[in-house]
Amino acid sequence: MNATSPPTADSQAAPVLVTGSAGHVGANLVRRLLEEGVRVRVLLRQEDNNQALEGLDVERVWADIRYLDATRRALEGCQGVYHVAAKVSTIDGNNAHRREIYECNVVGTRNVLQAAREAEAGRVVVTGSFSAVGYDLDDPSAPSDETMQFYPMERTMPYERSKILVEHECLRAAAMGQDVVIATCCAVVGGADFLPSRLGRTMCDFTDGKLRAYIDGGFEFVAARDIVEGHLLCMEKGRSGEKYIFSTEYKTISDIIDLYEEVSGLPRPSRRVPANLMYVFSEVASFYLSRFHPEFPQRFTPGAIRLLKKRRHANLAKAKNELGYRPTSIRDAVQEAYAFHYYERKAISNPDAKLPRAPAANRDEVPARDRDMQITTGESSS
């Protein structure tokens, strides 16, 4: 299939549909599309936190992708689909939790693809996960590329397995002639993190003194602006039936803590816990919390620690060579995330935390007291 031309700014043009628009990737993607003058339709659920869409000039449709008829109605008249919605989780959970992951991620993707096919909506870009990409069994830290098969013979998270099945649905659709491309996402860092994400919560906990310890290990991190760029590149230039990995930089957890120290001016926790030791503790804690307090947020789960212990790296050659992808900086992404949680969410309450740089576009929205503090502390406003 030929690559799809980017949607135009023509107000009479068909809208582009974005699922998962209230999440971290989706909220950044919608803002980028609106900046480029694209007509955007977002698919939302009434029961979700949809704060990320407040005040945005988008068409809203209320539907649940687990139900095909509702998904069909949401896609009527659309040209181009970004399917970002997913149930993200690093816990094993109970049977109800695992079924929800399967229905949201696998059945939901199948429904979006079928509805897009029936509506002749054009290319569908589906958000994939790096945790569903295979790795070298003898050297897990060796860079992984898109050709490496997922290894199913070890313990894996329900989320990881669901994203493998999501890729299967995409490839099955492509085999039937549908135009579909997978944009593989790593751990996202950046602003417009309204829900917030696990990394967003961790940053806020760090600045407010609630992060008592951290573990060793590492993973591939992607700036929010970079994964959005990756989705747009997939829509414009990607080859149907292919997937592309998008990352910005590999970082250890200690590297990320360094950046938290830099932006906040606060010291890191004094205790660094070996991953193997934390893994044992997390098994017990996650088993108890998943069964008796399923709504309690878990930070270092057994699944997350297993990923961090592998210290996985990504090979970005395919995205760079075929799509012209050029990653930016995780340091800048952390600064943007810090400013967002400080100014927009007002989720950082520690008076000793350093004032973040306010984006120039938001300069007039910064309280006068904070603008004065920026001048006296030497912080730039742009």
Order of helix and strand elements from N to C terminus: EHEEHEHEHEEHEEHEEHEHHHHH
Unreliable stretches, pLDDT < 50, 5 or more residues? 1-6, 360-382
Q: Return Rg in Å.
A: 21 Å
Give a count of the beta strands, DSSP E runs of length 2 or more: 12
What is the fold-level CATH name, i.e. the topology of the domain at 16-192 and 220-250 and 315-327? Rossmann fold
> What is the helix fraction of residues, given as a range?
40-55%
Q: Figure out the total of helices.
A: 12
Tell me the distance between the termini.
43 Å
Q: Strand sequence of the main sheet, in spatial order?
A: 3-2-1-4-5-6-10
Q: Pairing-aware structural class of the strands and helices?
A: alpha/beta
Largest sheet: 7 strands, parallel
CATH class of the domain at 16-192 and 220-250 and 315-327: Alpha Beta
For this structure, the quaternary state is single chain
Shape: globular
- Average pLDDT confidence is 90
Q: How large a portion of the residues is in β-strands, by DSSP E?
A: 5-15%
